[in-house]
């Protein structure tokens, strides 16, 4: 009897050990990280990475590009400006702005969402109606990025995402505009002929250049290729934490303005509120007393227009003079030297300078037969603050000016008959 009990005890003990081993094995299997999930930082951003620090840290590891996003910048609003930097013949001109979107980065579990923010319909956060406005303006998700790694230190909790596909694949809002796709019968992106050229980070913005090739049955030129290739430029700039104070629009004064549907007014109705797009000109702290006394002072930040290096030499001094002639208008507001013109730096002086960079306002010289000029600008949708402005000078604009000069003055000015 004693022998039987001892044998049973041994059997139970062995079975228990086997069960325990199976349980431990199963537990180990459960703890194995999922393939493609969050990895150790050094496994993703290796020692061979080429890193560029700025708004985000941008890493290049072989042919992949990564953003390292500080947790302090999640949910901060940023502006994405998309331009065609270089274009196919017959498709317009390089530097033309295609799209502007307000974006914010949001962490959601093991993903980072890039969301599109709208400021067209608003109500003050302190009002109950703001909840209804928010529920009717759900922010679209432009793109979702799986988190690749997390870098933790005593200050930040940085999240690493892979942005390679975002710039190399077909994301319509940062690529070829829909109207142009329709016109030239562009059907799809050819990924084998598309790639990221550069991705650079600066203190307040990130600049990307990527080449896109689309299959097209009716391209504007080089029809034998059956495709359109162009170089896109994307500038993503951090918007000010505190928006500039608005200046409301008055219909008695002509001005560029933007509008919002405001549900938070005292009247029980929605009204369109319009406010101006304008430069932020502020008095330096040390000059406030002089300013109040009526003395002209220079602003904290001047408006600077750079002259495109492509501009023919004979026109540069006149373009500069035309820009700085506007200083008189700003003097009426109490500022001297508020607007100035400057030559664009050479590659030796600043290899990173680019006319597509949203930090710089540029007088662009365009190789276009159209006799025209225009002045598009980029502004903060929350306040109307102009962040950057370009003046597009078309090559044939002198034809237009000559014709105006003749038609408007020829009756009393014989000099206008001579061709310029």
From TrEMBL:
Stretch list, region Disordered: 16-37
Residue ranges annotated for the DUF5117 domain, each copy included: 95-284
Chain ranges of the DUF5118 domain: 39-87
Domain of life where this protein originates: Bacteria
UniProt cross-references to SUPFAM superfamilies, sorted A to Z: Metalloproteases ('zincins'), catalytic domain
Record PANTHER family: PEPTIDASE M1A AND M12B, ZINC DEPENDENT METALLOPROTEASE DOMAIN LIPOPROTEIN
Name of the protein this chain belongs to: Zinc-dependent metalloprotease
